């Protein structure tokens, strides 16, 4: 009886800890986010819309990854990607609107 | 020998209005070179002496708070056309510059 | 008949397309004339000093013995120093390089590029076996300052030749000027047209008209003389847009557009600013 309940408790604890380890960022996830971020920033740059505050995020992400803090690395890469997305959105919006402020 | 001092002087009545522009790097010693990361050494004018017909009419003791290419203006009494005005400076490296003009 | 009509249509299209920069320039003048009805538009070559009485007084006092005088003298000395091959800057430019800054930027049909004065200065160096000067150096700005000084009083006279590439360069510069960019999403026109004459922190904003006539500038903030492209970089950084390199294509095209907009205004470089 006691052994069975002990095993049950252990199994329960293991089950609770498993999702946490699955959620923790790792090198693979970082590489993925980094690639997405770089692509988006390059897109923004091709549209003459790269922000001055974006590339430093990737530098910091690299440093975090190098020290093993993949949580932070992914967070920074994601933020950089967001910068790129917003910049590309500005580019698309402005393509339609910039003519409106030209004096005629 | 330091860069030449540029002087402009006007006489109004018996008062001379003098303006001087002194090309000089005026490094405070606190600036860090953006490229090398090294601190740029102190290099600034410490003393300026102005003489009218050989008599000192103005002495200035400058520190690191004075910016690059300092501009100085002052007036003094008892000036007449034909008088000489000499301005000289000495900096913390021992470098000097002297300029003499004839008042008109 | 059909061919005649097509030809007419194409001609009208081309005529409209070619007329565009001049239409833009006149429309811009009208914009400022309406915004500042009591202002002599020619005063706008003095930037914020056209709008700010107090700052203008200080500036006029400084003009008595301006800080850019040093750069003009240095520039003159460099300009008159021959290259190793015996030739000089005077050999590269019309009129010996004296009084010609109002013609820049110009469109070079051979290379298809917009050539600014600084670009031409370095081209002169490389054509004569000299190392080009880095774009943001004192020496390059000094040569430009001297050439600007000899051009004072001449009217800005930028030409957009009847070449679709030249027009495209102008249009690219124009689109750049009116497009919002950077994390702060500002377009050049937000400050220099919509908010011209208004306060931005402690300074009044200059207007687009006359912005290209007075370069290079001794900016007190810099403590030295600097070129227009240095200012472009600064403006970009201020709105958190990644700046381009000085004399990059984007900036040369922007300068082309800006200079054309100031056509007819007096060249008054080099100038001092806060």
Radius of gyration of chain B: 16 Å
User: How many domains, in number, for the residues of chain B?
Assistant: 1
- What profile does the largest beta sheet of chain B have? 4 strands, antiparallel
Low-confidence stretches of chain B: none
- Topology of chain B as a string of helices (H) and strands (E): EEEEEEE
Label the overall shape of chain A: elongated
Under CATH, the topology of chain B can be stated as Immunoglobulin-like
- Please state the structural category of chain B: mainly beta
Number of helices of chain A: 4
Q: Name the helix and strand elements of chain A from N-terminus to C-terminus, one letter apiece.
A: HHHH
Specify the CATH homologous superfamily of chain B.
Immunoglobulins
How much helical structure, as a percent, in the residues of chain B? under 10%
- Portion in beta strands of chain A: under 5%
CATH class of chain B: Mainly Beta
Radius of gyration of chain A, rounded? 22 Å
Average residue pLDDT of chain A: 89
Biggest β-sheet of chain A, characterized?
Answer: none
| Mass-distribution shape of chain B | elongated
Strand order of the largest sheet of chain B: 4-3-6-7
Write the SSE topology:
The complex is a heterotrimer of chains A (104), B (104) and C (274).
Chain A lengths: L1 H22 L3 H20 L8 H12 L3 H28 L7
Helix pairs in contact in A: 2-3, 2-4, 3-4
Chain B lengths: L5 E7 L2 E7 L23 E8 L2 E7 L9 E7 L6 E8 L4 E7 L2
Antiparallel strand pairs in B: 1-2, 2-5, 3-4, 3-6, 6-7
Chain C lengths: L1 H34 L17 H11 L5 H11 L26 E3 L4 E3 L1 H11 L10 H13 L13 H15 L9 H7 L4 E2 L2 E2 L12 E3 L4 E3 L1 H11 L10 H13 L9 E3 L1
Parallel strand pairs in C: 5-7
Antiparallel strand pairs in C: 1-2, 3-4, 5-6
Helix pairs in contact in C: 3-5, 4-5, 6-9
Walk me through what this model shows.
- The complex is a heterotrimer of chains A (104), B (104) and C (274).
- Chain A is an all-alpha fold.
- Chain A has one domain.
- Helices cover 79% and strands 0% of the residues of chain A.
- The radius of gyration of chain A is 22 Å and the shape is elongated.
- The termini of chain A are far apart.
- The model of chain A has no long low-confidence stretch (mean pLDDT 89).
- Chain B is mostly beta strands and 104 residues long.
- Chain B has a single domain, classed as Immunoglobulin-like (Sandwich), CATH 2.60.40.
- Helix content of chain B is 0%, strand content 49%.
- Chain B has a four-stranded antiparallel β-sheet, with no helix packed on it. Chain B has a three-stranded antiparallel β-sheet with strand order 1-2-5, with no helix packed on it.
- In chain B, a hairpin with a 2-residue loop joins strand 1 and strand 2.
- The model of chain B has no long low-confidence stretch (mean pLDDT 94).
- Chain C is mainly alpha-helical.
- Chain C has two domains: 158 residues, Cytochrome c-like domain (Cytochrome Bc1 Complex, Chain D, domain 2, Orthogonal Bundle); 82 residues, Cytochrome Bc1 Complex, Chain D, domain 2, CATH 1.10.760.
- Chain C contains nine helices and seven strands, in the order H-H-H-E-E-H-H-H-H-E-E-E-E-H-H-E.
- In chain C, strands 6-5-7 form a three-stranded mixed β-sheet. Chain C has a two-stranded antiparallel ribbon with strand order 1-2.
- In chain C, helix 4 packs across helix 5.
- The termini of chain C are far apart.
- The interface between A and C is medium-sized, with 18 and 26 residues.
